[in-house]
Amino acid sequence: MTGHPPPSSAPEPAREPARQRALRAVRQALRLLAVELGTPTEPGTPLFAAVQNRWLRRLPYLLAFGFAVSLLPTTVTVLANDYGMAGALAGALATAQSVSLLLAVARPLQAWWVIFAADVVCALALTMVDGVAGRAWPWPPPVIVGYLALMLALSLRERRRTLIAVWLTTGAAGILFELAAPAHVQNTWVLLFVLSGVMLMMGATLRERGDAQRKLIEQETISEAERARRTLLEERTRIARELHDVVAHHMSVITVQADSAPYRISGIPKAAEDEFGAIAATARESLAEMRRLLGVLRSEETERQGGPEKAPQPGIGMLPKLVEGTVRAGVPVELALPEESAVLEPAVDLSAYRIVQEALANVVRHAPGARTRVSLRTTADGARLTVLVVNSAPPAPATPSAPLETGGTGHGLVGMRERVRLVDGSLDTGPLPDGGFRVAAQLPLAPPAAPASPLPTKDSGSL
Fold first, then answer.
1. What letters, b where the CB count within 10 A reaches 16 and e where it falls short, cover 380-409?
2. Are 140 and 177 in contact, with CB atoms under 8 Å apart?
3. What is the spatial order of strands in the sheet that 372-378 belongs to?
4. HEC profile of the chain
5. Tell me: the pLDDT tens digits for 398-436?
């Protein structure tokens, strides 16, 4: 007869690893709790320190001072008279519980350690007095008020995990006191646990909402800066496209002069003919590179429309036609041109026209119907051309105007500044006392002097 095998003890080793895992999880949770409760956020920085309003920055100090001044005598009176605690002990605990609220303005987590420890000592001390029966315990009413004020300061500063750790620690302390509660007391740990959770959630919501608004404002500021930068780059690209014709014309003249020099001038040495041929070849290569550059700068819309860059660039000679289009748009404009037309550099001629065009386009958009005067004149020394566009305040009420046929092609004042900077001029713009606006530009009639280059020596291989 075979006997039954003895009962196996295999489940015992399985329970031991589970117990070890539970202990390890508890240790990790306690370690995480200690880290969260011991790592404050921005210690030493007062609440509302980043607020621009001076009175709002002082508000935390005023509230903390008000709570401390009101709770200190109240707590001493309640602990000594109602609960029968010794006066010295009641004064010490009340001081720790109320005056520490001043610390909560800049270091709320450190203040919580002080106040929470004082509250625990107070609860233990109340178990040894006779007046606790029938009264609130372990947290008397003044203690609850001060603790809730501390929770608000804590929630406005610390991260969410720290707030959860504080809330759970408050609940755990209440549960432990519940196990050793004196007889015939009104237990208040559930009340404090619930109210502190509500206060922490409310403060954290306000803080996160404020953080979101600040980030949104920062993002809008960055977007505005990027928009301004993009506008500037677009305007510079547009100016570069317009100046392509001017530069290409000069390069074409160089090419023709270099190619025709051996036929126009007799007796040129062979080395000089080769040099002229190299100059012409370089000029043609430069023209090809200019065309490729224009292809990069030309926008997709320009490509689809057939490329307005192929048309001749305008100058001040086309200002009368521009003024006619502005008058048809409902803006009365007077034009005054210099009696003797000066010979302008192509870039200056184009810049003067575009400045007037942008100024008139701004009048049509922002001051429809306003009387406007456009004048161009040379300075007394004949070195600069003054472009002046002045408009008065628009008539009230302003009526919608017809679209300007030759509207601005750039970005208003940004384009004017770039064109003036391009030709080494100056620009002055601003509102007038009567509600009008003034645009004054000074453009040089001669190109800026290039830096002098050293003369070639005999060893440089020059002609």
1. eeeebbbbbbbbbbbeeeeeebeebebebe
2. no
3. 333-336, 372-378, 384-391, 437-444, 426-431
4. CCCCCCCCCCHHHHHHHHHHHHHHHHHHHHHHHHHHHHCCCCCCCCCCCCCCCHHHHHHHHHHHHHHHHHHHHHHHHHHHHHCCCCHHHHHHHHHHHHHHHHHHHCCHHHHHHHHHHHHHHHHHHHCCCHHHCCCEECCCHHHHHHHHHHHHHHHCCCCHHHHHHHHHHHHHHHHHHHHCCCCCCEECHHHHHHHHHHHHHHHHHHHHHHHHHHHHHHHHHHHHHHHHHHHHHHHHHHHHHHHHHHHHHHHHHHHHHHHHHHHHCCCCCHHHHHHHHHHHHHHHHHHHHHHHHHHHHCCHHHHHHCCHHHCCCCCHHHHHHHHHHHHHCCCCEEEECCCCCCCCCHHHHHHHHHHHHHHHHHHHHHCCCCCEEEEEEECCCCCEEEEEEEECCCCCCCCCCCCCCCCCCCCCHHHHHHHHHHCCCEEEEEECCCCCEEEEEEEECCCCCCCCCCCCCHHHCCC
5. 444 444 444 455 567 887 888 888 888 899 998 999 889
Alpha carbon distance 405, 22 (integer Å): 81
Predicted TM-score (pTM) of the model is 0.54
Pairing of strands 437-444, 426-431: antiparallel
Which residue's structure tokens are 């505005």?
Answer: 224
pLDDT single digits (tens) 353-380: 889 988 888 888 888 888 999 999 888 7
- Alpha carbon distance 305, 307 (integer Å): 6
Query: Checking phi first, is residue 230 left (phi over 0); if not, alpha (psi -120 to 50) or beta?
Result: alpha
Over residues 159-215, the pLDDT tens digits come to 999 999 999 999 999 999 998 888 889 999 999 999 999 999 999 999 888 888 888
- Burial degree of 459 (CB within 10 A; 0-12, 13-18, 19+): exposed
User: Cβ atoms within 10 A of the Cβ of 88, count?
Assistant: 9
